[in-house]
Protein backbone atom coordinates (compact mmCIF):
# COMPACT_ATOMS: atom_id res chain seq x y z
CA UNK A 1 0.00 0.00 0.00
CA UNK A 2 2.91 2.36 0.65
CA UNK A 3 3.77 2.22 -3.04
CA UNK A 4 0.21 2.92 -4.18
CA UNK A 5 -2.72 4.62 -2.45
CA UNK A 6 -0.96 5.33 0.87
CA UNK A 7 2.08 6.71 -0.96
CA UNK A 8 -0.12 9.03 -3.01
CA UNK A 9 -2.07 10.64 -0.17
CA UNK A 10 0.00 10.11 3.01
CA UNK A 11 3.49 11.50 3.59
CA UNK A 12 4.79 8.84 5.99
CA UNK A 13 4.28 7.08 9.30
CA UNK A 14 5.80 9.62 11.70
CA UNK A 15 7.37 13.06 11.93
CA UNK A 16 10.80 11.78 10.91
CA UNK A 17 9.72 9.80 7.86
CA UNK A 18 7.80 12.73 6.36
CA UNK A 19 10.78 15.12 6.38
CA UNK A 20 12.15 14.13 2.92
CA UNK A 21 8.81 14.86 1.24
CA UNK A 22 8.33 18.11 3.17
CA UNK A 23 11.84 19.30 2.23
CA UNK A 24 11.40 18.28 -1.41
CA UNK A 25 8.15 20.24 -1.64
CA UNK A 26 9.82 23.23 0.01
CA UNK A 27 12.43 23.21 -2.75
CA UNK A 28 9.57 23.90 -5.17
CA UNK A 29 8.14 26.66 -2.99
CA UNK A 30 5.39 24.50 -1.51
CA UNK A 31 4.93 24.53 2.26
CA UNK A 32 3.22 22.03 4.56
CA UNK A 33 0.22 21.91 6.85
CA UNK A 34 0.95 18.83 8.95
CA UNK A 35 -1.92 16.62 10.05
CA UNK A 36 -1.67 13.39 12.04
CA UNK A 37 -4.43 11.52 10.22
CA UNK A 38 -5.13 8.61 12.54
CA UNK A 39 -8.89 8.18 12.86
CA UNK A 40 -11.11 6.06 15.05
CA UNK A 41 -12.77 3.26 13.12
CA UNK A 42 -16.28 3.10 14.62
CA UNK A 43 -19.43 1.39 13.45
CA UNK A 44 -22.45 3.62 12.81
CA UNK A 45 -24.12 2.31 15.97
CA UNK A 46 -21.03 3.07 18.08
CA UNK A 47 -20.77 6.58 16.62
CA UNK A 48 -24.45 7.34 17.29
CA UNK A 49 -24.16 6.09 20.89
CA UNK A 50 -21.09 8.23 21.57
CA UNK A 51 -22.68 11.31 20.03
CA UNK A 52 -25.89 11.07 22.05
CA UNK A 53 -23.98 10.50 25.28
CA UNK A 54 -21.69 13.46 24.67
CA UNK A 55 -24.26 15.96 23.35
CA UNK A 56 -27.06 15.53 25.88
CA UNK A 57 -26.63 17.12 29.31
CA UNK A 58 -27.66 15.53 32.57
CA UNK A 59 -30.45 18.11 32.94
CA UNK A 60 -31.88 17.08 29.58
CA UNK A 61 -31.68 13.40 30.49
CA UNK A 62 -33.42 13.87 33.84
CA UNK A 63 -36.43 15.93 32.85
CA UNK A 64 -38.42 17.81 30.23
CA UNK A 65 -36.88 21.18 31.19
CA UNK A 66 -35.11 21.48 27.87
CA UNK A 67 -38.24 21.60 25.75
CA UNK A 68 -37.59 25.26 24.90
CA UNK A 69 -34.26 24.35 23.29
CA UNK A 70 -34.11 24.90 19.54
CA UNK A 71 -34.20 21.61 17.66
CA UNK A 72 -31.29 22.57 15.41
CA UNK A 73 -29.00 22.75 18.45
CA UNK A 74 -30.08 19.48 20.02
CA UNK A 75 -28.62 16.06 19.31
CA UNK A 76 -30.68 13.74 17.08
CA UNK A 77 -29.81 10.07 16.95
CA UNK A 78 -30.55 9.67 13.23
CA UNK A 79 -27.73 12.16 12.58
CA UNK A 80 -25.52 11.01 15.43
CA UNK A 81 -22.93 9.57 13.08
CA UNK A 82 -21.49 12.88 11.84
CA UNK A 83 -19.46 11.04 9.20
CA UNK A 84 -22.58 10.47 7.09
CA UNK A 85 -22.28 12.14 3.70
CA UNK A 86 -18.90 13.64 4.63
CA UNK A 87 -15.84 12.47 2.72
CA UNK A 88 -13.45 15.42 2.84
CA UNK A 89 -13.29 16.13 6.58
CA UNK A 90 -12.25 14.13 9.61
CA UNK A 91 -14.76 13.52 12.41
CA UNK A 92 -14.01 13.23 16.13
CA UNK A 93 -16.28 11.57 18.66
CA UNK A 94 -16.03 12.30 22.37
CA UNK A 95 -15.06 9.41 24.65
CA UNK A 96 -13.66 11.00 27.80
CA UNK A 97 -11.39 13.81 29.01
CA UNK A 98 -8.27 11.64 28.85
CA UNK A 99 -8.81 11.08 25.13
CA UNK A 100 -9.20 14.83 24.60
CA UNK A 101 -5.88 15.34 26.40
CA UNK A 102 -4.25 12.76 24.12
CA UNK A 103 -5.62 14.48 21.02
CA UNK A 104 -4.37 17.82 22.33
CA UNK A 105 -0.88 16.31 22.73
CA UNK A 106 -1.05 15.09 19.13
CA UNK A 107 -1.92 18.61 17.97
CA UNK A 108 1.02 19.97 20.01
CA UNK A 109 3.37 17.52 18.27
CA UNK A 110 2.05 18.70 14.87
CA UNK A 111 2.58 22.33 15.87
CA UNK A 112 6.14 21.66 16.99
CA UNK A 113 6.87 19.63 13.86
CA UNK A 114 5.47 22.44 11.68
CA UNK A 115 7.65 24.95 13.50
CA UNK A 116 10.71 22.77 13.01
CA UNK A 117 10.02 22.07 9.34
CA UNK A 118 9.74 25.69 8.15
CA UNK A 119 9.69 29.29 9.32
CA UNK A 120 6.12 29.89 8.17
CA UNK A 121 4.25 26.66 8.84
CA UNK A 122 0.56 26.06 9.44
CA UNK A 123 -1.19 23.58 11.68
CA UNK A 124 -4.91 22.76 11.85
CA UNK A 125 -7.11 21.76 14.79
CA UNK A 126 -10.75 20.79 15.35
CA UNK A 127 -12.54 21.88 18.51
CA UNK A 128 -14.64 18.70 18.63
CA UNK A 129 -11.36 16.85 19.27
CA UNK A 130 -10.70 18.92 22.39
CA UNK A 131 -13.80 18.53 24.50
CA UNK A 132 -17.36 17.40 24.93
CA UNK A 133 -19.45 18.76 22.04
CA UNK A 134 -22.42 19.42 24.34
CA UNK A 135 -20.84 22.79 25.17
CA UNK A 136 -20.49 23.74 21.49
CA UNK A 137 -24.17 22.99 20.87
CA UNK A 138 -25.32 24.99 23.90
CA UNK A 139 -23.00 27.94 23.34
CA UNK A 140 -24.02 28.06 19.66
CA UNK A 141 -27.69 28.29 20.61
CA UNK A 142 -26.99 31.08 23.10
CA UNK A 143 -25.03 33.07 20.52
CA UNK A 144 -27.70 32.66 17.84
CA UNK A 145 -30.45 33.82 20.22
CA UNK A 146 -28.43 36.88 21.22
CA UNK A 147 -27.78 37.65 17.56
CA UNK A 148 -31.51 37.60 16.85
CA UNK A 149 -32.09 39.83 19.84
CA UNK A 150 -29.61 42.43 18.63
CA UNK A 151 -30.99 42.25 15.10
CA UNK A 152 -34.40 42.99 16.63
CA UNK A 153 -32.97 46.01 18.46
CA UNK A 154 -31.31 47.26 15.28
CA UNK A 155 -34.62 46.96 13.41
CA UNK A 156 -36.52 48.77 16.16
CA UNK A 157 -34.02 51.59 16.51
CA UNK A 158 -35.03 53.16 13.22
CA UNK A 159 -38.75 52.94 14.01
CA UNK A 160 -38.94 54.84 17.28
CA UNK A 161 -36.68 56.82 19.58
CA UNK A 162 -38.54 55.35 22.55
CA UNK A 163 -38.23 51.70 21.61
CA UNK A 164 -36.34 50.78 24.81
CA UNK A 165 -39.12 49.45 26.98
CA UNK A 166 -39.09 48.83 30.72
CA UNK A 167 -38.24 45.22 29.95
CA UNK A 168 -35.13 46.38 28.04
CA UNK A 169 -33.94 48.39 31.04
CA UNK A 170 -34.45 45.35 33.27
CA UNK A 171 -32.37 43.35 30.80
CA UNK A 172 -29.60 45.95 30.96
CA UNK A 173 -29.60 45.64 34.76
CA UNK A 174 -29.40 41.86 34.48
CA UNK A 175 -26.39 42.09 32.14
CA UNK A 176 -24.66 44.52 34.51
CA UNK A 177 -25.17 42.17 37.45
CA UNK A 178 -23.91 39.26 35.37
CA UNK A 179 -20.65 41.17 34.95
CA UNK A 180 -20.30 40.91 31.18
CA UNK A 181 -19.14 44.53 30.92
CA UNK A 182 -19.31 48.07 32.34
CA UNK A 183 -22.74 49.68 32.45
CA UNK A 184 -21.86 52.29 29.82
CA UNK A 185 -20.75 49.56 27.38
CA UNK A 186 -23.92 47.58 27.98
CA UNK A 187 -26.08 50.65 27.28
CA UNK A 188 -24.11 51.18 24.07
CA UNK A 189 -24.98 47.63 22.94
CA UNK A 190 -28.64 48.67 23.01
CA UNK A 191 -28.43 52.21 21.63
CA UNK A 192 -24.94 53.02 20.36
CA UNK A 193 -23.11 52.71 17.09
CA UNK A 194 -21.98 49.16 17.86
CA UNK A 195 -25.57 47.93 17.84
CA UNK A 196 -25.78 44.87 15.62
CA UNK A 197 -22.08 44.95 14.66
CA UNK A 198 -20.80 41.88 16.42
CA UNK A 199 -24.21 40.23 16.38
CA UNK A 200 -23.91 39.26 20.02
CA UNK A 201 -22.60 40.50 23.33
CA UNK A 202 -18.95 40.40 24.34
CA UNK A 203 -19.43 37.84 27.06
CA UNK A 204 -15.94 38.01 28.57
CA UNK A 205 -12.41 38.33 27.29
CA UNK A 206 -10.46 35.16 26.53
CA UNK A 207 -8.39 35.26 29.73
CA UNK A 208 -11.57 35.38 31.79
CA UNK A 209 -13.10 32.49 29.86
CA UNK A 210 -10.19 30.17 30.69
CA UNK A 211 -9.90 31.35 34.30
CA UNK A 212 -10.75 28.62 36.81
CA UNK A 213 -12.98 30.98 38.80
CA UNK A 214 -15.34 31.67 35.89
CA UNK A 215 -18.40 29.46 35.71
CA UNK A 216 -19.10 28.95 32.02
CA UNK A 217 -22.71 27.99 32.71
CA UNK A 218 -23.33 31.54 33.98
CA UNK A 219 -22.64 32.76 30.45
CA UNK A 220 -25.14 30.38 28.85
CA UNK A 221 -27.97 32.86 29.41
CA UNK A 222 -30.53 34.02 26.85
CA UNK A 223 -32.69 37.19 26.80
CA UNK A 224 -36.46 37.04 27.27
CA UNK A 225 -38.04 40.09 25.62
CA UNK A 226 -41.39 39.49 27.31
CA UNK A 227 -40.07 39.59 30.88
CA UNK A 228 -36.84 41.52 30.42
CA UNK A 229 -35.01 38.81 32.31
CA UNK A 230 -31.99 36.72 31.44
CA UNK A 231 -32.87 33.05 31.56
CA UNK A 232 -30.50 30.08 31.73
CA UNK A 233 -30.44 27.87 28.64
CA UNK A 234 -30.67 24.87 30.99
CA UNK A 235 -31.78 24.85 34.61
CA UNK A 236 -28.74 23.04 35.98
CA UNK A 237 -25.23 21.99 35.05
CA UNK A 238 -23.32 19.36 36.98
CA UNK A 239 -19.89 20.20 38.40
CA UNK A 240 -18.33 17.75 35.94
CA UNK A 241 -20.04 19.49 33.03
CA UNK A 242 -18.64 22.81 34.29
CA UNK A 243 -15.15 21.30 34.36
CA UNK A 244 -15.54 19.77 30.91
CA UNK A 245 -16.49 23.13 29.37
CA UNK A 246 -13.55 24.84 31.09
CA UNK A 247 -11.06 22.14 30.06
CA UNK A 248 -12.01 22.48 26.38
CA UNK A 249 -11.20 26.21 26.46
CA UNK A 250 -7.98 25.63 28.38
CA UNK A 251 -6.80 23.03 25.84
CA UNK A 252 -7.47 25.45 23.00
CA UNK A 253 -5.56 28.18 24.84
CA UNK A 254 -2.59 25.88 25.36
CA UNK A 255 -2.48 25.06 21.63
CA UNK A 256 -2.64 28.75 20.71
CA UNK A 257 0.28 29.50 23.03
CA UNK A 258 2.31 26.65 21.51
CA UNK A 259 1.57 28.00 18.03
CA UNK A 260 2.75 31.46 19.05
CA UNK A 261 5.93 30.11 20.66
CA UNK A 262 6.80 27.98 17.61
CA UNK A 263 6.02 30.61 14.99
CA UNK A 264 3.20 28.50 13.52
CA UNK A 265 -0.14 29.79 12.19
CA UNK A 266 -3.02 27.85 13.77
CA UNK A 267 -6.11 27.19 11.66
CA UNK A 268 -9.31 26.29 13.50
CA UNK A 269 -11.31 24.08 11.13
CA UNK A 270 -14.99 24.70 10.47
CA UNK A 271 -17.53 22.03 11.42
CA UNK A 272 -21.31 21.52 11.23
CA UNK A 273 -23.51 24.63 11.49
CA UNK A 274 -24.98 23.53 14.81
CA UNK A 275 -21.46 23.70 16.28
CA UNK A 276 -20.09 26.54 14.16
CA UNK A 277 -21.39 29.67 15.93
CA UNK A 278 -19.53 28.60 19.08
CA UNK A 279 -16.41 27.56 17.16
CA UNK A 280 -16.26 30.85 15.25
CA UNK A 281 -16.88 32.94 18.36
CA UNK A 282 -14.22 31.18 20.42
CA UNK A 283 -11.77 31.51 17.52
CA UNK A 284 -12.53 35.23 17.29
CA UNK A 285 -11.83 35.63 21.02
CA UNK A 286 -8.47 33.91 20.48
CA UNK A 287 -7.72 36.24 17.58
CA UNK A 288 -8.35 39.22 19.84
CA UNK A 289 -5.65 37.93 22.18
CA UNK A 290 -3.09 36.26 19.92
CA UNK A 291 -3.32 38.29 16.67
CA UNK A 292 -2.07 41.60 18.06
CA UNK A 293 1.31 41.58 16.27
CA UNK A 294 0.65 39.21 13.36
CA UNK A 295 -2.03 36.77 12.16
CA UNK A 296 -1.46 33.64 14.26
CA UNK A 297 -5.02 32.31 14.67
CA UNK A 298 -7.05 31.69 11.50
CA UNK A 299 -10.82 31.21 11.46
CA UNK A 300 -12.41 29.05 8.75
CA UNK A 301 -15.35 30.23 6.64
CA UNK A 302 -17.46 27.77 4.66
CA UNK A 303 -18.33 29.78 1.58
CA UNK A 304 -21.40 27.76 0.61
CA UNK A 305 -23.28 28.96 3.72
CA UNK A 306 -25.96 31.63 3.35
CA UNK A 307 -24.45 33.67 6.18
CA UNK A 308 -20.80 33.32 5.08
CA UNK A 309 -20.44 36.75 3.50
CA UNK A 310 -22.00 38.57 6.45
CA UNK A 311 -19.83 36.65 8.91
CA UNK A 312 -16.62 37.53 7.07
CA UNK A 313 -17.65 41.17 6.72
CA UNK A 314 -18.49 41.56 10.41
CA UNK A 315 -15.26 39.89 11.56
CA UNK A 316 -13.08 41.98 9.24
CA UNK A 317 -14.75 45.17 10.45
CA UNK A 318 -14.34 44.09 14.08
CA UNK A 319 -10.62 43.44 13.58
CA UNK A 320 -10.20 46.89 12.02
CA UNK A 321 -11.99 48.63 14.86
CA UNK A 322 -10.14 46.77 17.59
CA UNK A 323 -6.72 46.74 15.94
CA UNK A 324 -5.87 43.06 15.58
CA UNK A 325 -4.89 41.00 12.52
CA UNK A 326 -7.66 39.18 10.68
CA UNK A 327 -6.78 35.65 9.54
CA UNK A 328 -9.11 33.42 7.50
CA UNK A 329 -9.14 30.13 5.67
CA UNK A 330 -11.77 30.10 2.91
CA UNK A 331 -13.20 26.70 1.94
CA UNK A 332 -16.23 25.54 0.03
CA UNK A 333 -17.45 23.44 2.95
CA UNK A 334 -17.50 19.70 3.58
CA UNK A 335 -20.95 19.02 5.04
CA UNK A 336 -23.38 19.95 2.25
CA UNK A 337 -25.31 16.70 1.89
CA UNK A 338 -25.43 15.99 5.61
CA UNK A 339 -26.53 19.56 6.47
CA UNK A 340 -29.29 19.57 3.87
CA UNK A 341 -30.65 16.19 4.98
CA UNK A 342 -30.59 17.16 8.67
CA UNK A 343 -32.35 20.49 8.07
CA UNK A 344 -35.10 18.85 6.02
CA UNK A 345 -35.62 15.94 8.40
CA UNK A 346 -35.61 17.93 11.65
CA UNK A 347 -37.40 20.98 10.26
CA UNK A 348 -35.30 24.14 10.10
CA UNK A 349 -34.01 26.33 7.28
CA UNK A 350 -31.32 24.84 5.06
CA UNK A 351 -28.18 26.83 6.01
CA UNK A 352 -26.55 26.29 2.60
CA UNK A 353 -27.18 28.26 -0.58
CA UNK A 354 -29.48 26.33 -2.93
CA UNK A 355 -26.97 26.10 -5.78
CA UNK A 356 -23.68 27.36 -7.21
CA UNK A 357 -25.34 30.30 -8.99
CA UNK A 358 -27.00 31.50 -5.77
CA UNK A 359 -23.64 31.36 -4.02
CA UNK A 360 -22.07 33.43 -6.79
CA UNK A 361 -24.84 36.03 -6.53
CA UNK A 362 -24.21 36.35 -2.79
CA UNK A 363 -20.58 37.34 -3.46
CA UNK A 364 -21.24 39.44 -6.58
CA UNK A 365 -19.40 42.74 -6.30
CA UNK A 366 -18.50 41.94 -2.70
CA UNK A 367 -14.98 43.27 -2.08
CA UNK A 368 -14.02 41.10 0.88
CA UNK A 369 -14.68 37.61 -0.41
CA UNK A 370 -15.25 37.50 -4.14
CA UNK A 371 -11.65 38.27 -5.00
CA UNK A 372 -10.35 35.60 -2.67
CA UNK A 373 -12.49 32.68 -3.81
CA UNK A 374 -12.55 33.48 -7.52
CA UNK A 375 -10.63 31.18 -9.87
CA UNK A 376 -9.09 34.40 -11.21
CA UNK A 377 -7.48 35.06 -7.85
CA UNK A 378 -3.92 35.54 -9.16
CA UNK A 379 -4.78 38.24 -11.73
CA UNK A 380 -7.04 39.91 -9.19
CA UNK A 381 -4.14 40.00 -6.74
CA UNK A 382 -2.12 41.75 -9.44
CA UNK A 383 -4.96 44.23 -10.01
CA UNK A 384 -5.01 45.01 -6.29
CA UNK A 385 -1.25 45.40 -6.09
CA UNK A 386 -0.86 42.38 -3.81
CA UNK A 387 2.61 40.95 -4.32
CA UNK A 388 3.11 37.21 -3.61
CA UNK A 389 6.03 38.14 -1.35
CA UNK A 390 3.67 40.02 0.98
CA UNK A 391 2.24 36.67 2.16
CA UNK A 392 -1.28 38.03 2.54
CA UNK A 393 -3.05 35.46 0.35
CA UNK A 394 -2.24 31.74 0.59
CA UNK A 395 -3.26 28.79 -1.56
CA UNK A 396 -3.71 25.22 -0.35
CA UNK A 397 -4.49 21.75 -1.67
CA UNK A 398 -4.43 18.22 -0.33
CA UNK A 399 -1.30 16.12 -0.72
CA UNK A 400 -1.64 13.96 -3.82
CA UNK A 401 -4.22 16.20 -5.47
CA UNK A 402 -4.04 19.23 -7.81
CA UNK A 403 -0.24 19.17 -8.14
CA UNK A 404 -0.63 20.93 -11.49
CA UNK A 405 -1.92 23.91 -9.48
CA UNK A 406 0.28 23.75 -6.38
CA UNK A 407 3.73 23.51 -7.90
CA UNK A 408 3.40 26.16 -10.66
CA UNK A 409 2.08 28.57 -8.02
CA UNK A 410 5.01 27.74 -5.76
CA UNK A 411 7.50 28.19 -8.59
CA UNK A 412 5.90 31.55 -9.41
CA UNK A 413 6.59 32.72 -5.87
CA UNK A 414 3.05 32.51 -4.48
CA UNK A 415 2.59 31.17 -0.92
CA UNK A 416 1.14 27.70 -1.46
CA UNK A 417 0.77 24.79 0.95
CA UNK A 418 -0.01 21.10 0.84
CA UNK A 419 -2.19 19.60 3.55
CA UNK A 420 0.20 16.80 4.59
CA UNK A 421 -1.37 13.79 6.38
CA UNK A 422 0.83 11.25 8.13
CA UNK A 423 0.42 8.21 10.38
CA UNK A 424 0.88 4.40 10.53
CA UNK A 425 -0.53 2.51 7.56
CA UNK A 426 -3.05 0.45 9.51
CA UNK A 427 -4.33 3.50 11.44
CA UNK A 428 -4.96 5.84 8.51
CA UNK A 429 -7.29 3.44 6.68
CA UNK A 430 -10.40 5.57 7.52
CA UNK A 431 -8.66 8.63 6.06
CA UNK A 432 -7.63 6.72 2.94
CA UNK A 433 -11.13 5.31 2.50
CA UNK A 434 -12.48 8.88 2.41
CA UNK A 435 -9.87 9.82 -0.18
CA UNK A 436 -10.97 6.79 -2.23
CA UNK A 437 -14.60 7.95 -2.11
CA UNK A 438 -13.58 11.50 -2.99
CA UNK A 439 -11.64 10.26 -5.99
CA UNK A 440 -14.27 7.95 -7.43
CA UNK A 441 -14.45 10.35 -10.35
CA UNK A 442 -10.68 10.52 -10.62
CA UNK A 443 -10.52 8.46 -13.81
CA UNK A 444 -12.87 10.92 -15.51
CA UNK A 445 -10.14 13.52 -15.25
CA UNK A 446 -7.26 11.17 -15.93
CA UNK A 447 -7.21 11.99 -19.66
CA UNK A 448 -6.52 15.65 -18.84
CA UNK A 449 -3.80 14.59 -16.38
CA UNK A 450 -2.14 12.39 -19.02
CA UNK A 451 -2.32 15.24 -21.51
CA UNK A 452 -0.62 17.63 -19.09
CA UNK A 453 2.09 15.07 -18.26
CA UNK A 454 2.75 14.34 -21.93
CA UNK A 455 2.94 18.06 -22.68
CA UNK A 456 5.46 18.59 -19.88
CA UNK A 457 7.55 15.60 -20.95
CA UNK A 458 7.77 16.93 -24.54
CA UNK A 459 8.72 20.37 -23.21
CA UNK A 460 11.56 18.92 -21.17
CA UNK A 461 12.82 16.74 -24.04
CA UNK A 462 12.88 19.69 -26.43
CA UNK A 463 14.56 21.90 -23.82
CA UNK A 464 17.11 19.22 -22.90
CA UNK A 465 15.93 19.39 -19.29
CA UNK A 466 14.83 15.88 -18.32
CA UNK A 467 15.48 16.45 -14.62
CA UNK A 468 13.71 19.60 -13.48
CA UNK A 469 15.55 21.88 -11.05
CA UNK A 470 13.29 24.12 -8.95
CA UNK A 471 13.86 27.84 -9.25
CA UNK A 472 12.61 28.62 -5.75
From TrEMBL:
Converts proline to delta-1-pyrroline-5-carboxylate. Its EC number is 1.5.5.2. The keyword Flavoprotein applies. Gene3D superfamilies: 3.20.20.220. The keyword Hydrolase does not apply. GO terms for cellular component: mitochondrion. It comes from Cynoglossus semilaevis. GO terms for biological process: L-proline catabolic process to L-glutamate. It catalyses: L-proline + a quinone = (S)-1-pyrroline-5-carboxylate + a quinol + H(+). Residues 46-70 have a biased composition (Basic and acidic residues). It is an enzyme of class 1 (oxidoreductase). Residues 23-364, 383-441 form the Proline dehydrogenase domain. This is Proline dehydrogenase. GO terms for molecular function: FAD binding; proline dehydrogenase activity. Belongs to the proline oxidase family. InterPro entries: FAD-linked_oxidoreductase-like, Proline_DH_dom, Proline_oxidase. Pathway: Amino-acid degradation; L-proline degradation into L-glutamate; L-glutamate from L-proline: step 1/2. Residues 44-73 are annotated as: Disordered. Keywords: FAD, Flavoprotein, Oxidoreductase, Proline metabolism. Its cofactor is FAD.
Amino acid sequence: MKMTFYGQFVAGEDQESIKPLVHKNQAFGVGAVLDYSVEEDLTQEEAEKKEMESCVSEAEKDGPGADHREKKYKAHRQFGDRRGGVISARTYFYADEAKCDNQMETFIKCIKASGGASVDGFSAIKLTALGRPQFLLQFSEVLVQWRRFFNFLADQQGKSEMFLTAEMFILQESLTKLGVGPRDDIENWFTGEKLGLSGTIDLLDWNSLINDTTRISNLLMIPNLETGQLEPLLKTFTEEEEKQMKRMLQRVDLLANHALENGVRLMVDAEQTYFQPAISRLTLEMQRKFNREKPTIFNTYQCYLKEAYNNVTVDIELSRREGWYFGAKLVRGAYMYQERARAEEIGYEDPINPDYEATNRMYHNRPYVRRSVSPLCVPRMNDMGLSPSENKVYFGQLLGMCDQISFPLGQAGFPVYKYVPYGPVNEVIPYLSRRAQENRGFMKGSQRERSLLWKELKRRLLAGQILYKPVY
